[in-house]
Design brief:
Strand content of chain A: 15-25%
Number of strands of chain A: 8
CATH topology of one domain in chain A: Jelly Rolls
CATH class of one domain in chain A: Mainly Beta
Oligomer: homodimer
CATH superfamily of one domain in chain A: Jelly Rolls
Strand order of the largest sheet of chain A: 1-8-3-6
CATH architecture of one domain in chain A: Sandwich
Structural class of chain A: alpha+beta
Largest sheet of chain A: 4 strands, antiparallel
DNA sequence: ATGATTTATTGACTTTGGTCAACGACTTTT
DNA sequence: AAAAGTCGTTGACCAAAGTCAATAAATCAT
């Protein structure tokens, strides 16, 4: 999992001993398109690194799916809340393509935290980073109109629009598909 | 600062050596009502523990203040984003009463992280906790109506309604004061 | 290729929150 | 006590997103 080690380097460099212990905790899993790697009601006891493929993170509100996040190659995927709190997940995580992920489970990660100060630090830096991401998404919901969110999204990740159907983008932006269609029609 | 040590105990118990080093980094500061402890454009290089008093965390959008958070006795107060990224704050932090806070700055905290694995862990647990708080606030903006947010707020923190003027509650809920007044008028 | 299903667009109408203005109840200042 | 300012409420109107329905376009299965 060299790509994961490179990803970690953005936060902190692990030495070979730390990295080997980490790598030994990873389990490679092949996932087929539309497979659910987490269901509502289950405890999410893993964090997974996406080697190949993509996922959507959504919950079902009266039969309508509300998409909270998309995760792509090179991202982590997990219900971090359920992972941290031990509470059942309110979200599903479903593959949008065939995928390959590397999972690490809660118990093993906690052992690594105990054993290596640098991995403990990595955990802190990643938690801080996740905080920043969700805080900026909160800002976009508090202070931007749906149109502004849409424009910011295509600015930031135009690839998303090609890869994901529009009704999912709408859900992610917090509007109905009809509304997104009308937003796109403006200008 | 025994109350802070007790607060930390929810996350992890520090031994006396760890705690003493921590306590030595704290600076007590007296704040008067309406004093700003952080301004837009400044780098927030501190995290403060509120011993007495309360603060609001807001930013100024074209002369209108948008309140992102309230912080009370027993909470931390900081622009955590600015603190973590080193970027200038887009928010103000202003006292709503006379207050007493204990500040720790970025450099000192990083030294403590280096020196004590348990404090590094405390930093992780606090970052994880902040993640959970902002994630749940994001959910409330994505999936609830203003009325539902208002009801959840009075459910969770009815004290807030007594202590804070209604137009600030409205701002925190993401609506205009007139709208909050009408929401309250329903039923 | 054909038919079936899914996805995107458009129109008419409704709902909800925003805007602007007026007003009354309190506070604060002088 | 009077004047000025602040805060919350109410009314009339507006703008934006939701709802429901019809239809067009794209995709999938056979």
């Amino acid at each position: 999992m060299e790509t994961l080690r490179i990803y970690f380097n953005k936060f902190i460099k692990l030495n070979d001993s730390e990295w080997n212990d980490f790598e030994n905790c990873l389990t490679k899993v092949n996932i087929t398109n539309k497979e659910q790697i987490l269901r509502q009601g289950e405890h999410c006891n893993f964090i997974a690194f996406i080697h190949e493929g993509s996922f959507r993170f959504y919950y079902d509100k009266d039969g309508v799916e509300k998409i909270t996040a998309f995760n792509f190659k090179g991202d982590f995927v997990s219900n971090y809340r359920s992972f941290l709190t031990g509470k059942p997940s309110d979200h599903f995580i479903e593959a949008m393509q065939d995928a390959v992920i590397y999972k690490i489970n809660l118990q093993e990660l906690n052992s690594l935290y105990d054993k290596h100060k640098n991995i403990e630090r990595l955990g802190r830096l990643i938690a801080e980073n996740l905080y920043l991401m969700v805080a900026s998404r909160l800002d976009s919901f508090m202070f931007q109109t749906p149109e502004e969110r849409y424009k910011a999204l295509i600015e930031r990740n135009s690839r998303l629009l090609q890869e994901v159907p529009q009704y999912m983008i709408a859900s992610y932006l917090g509007v109905k598909p009809e509304t997104l269609s009308r937003i796109r029609g403006r200008k």
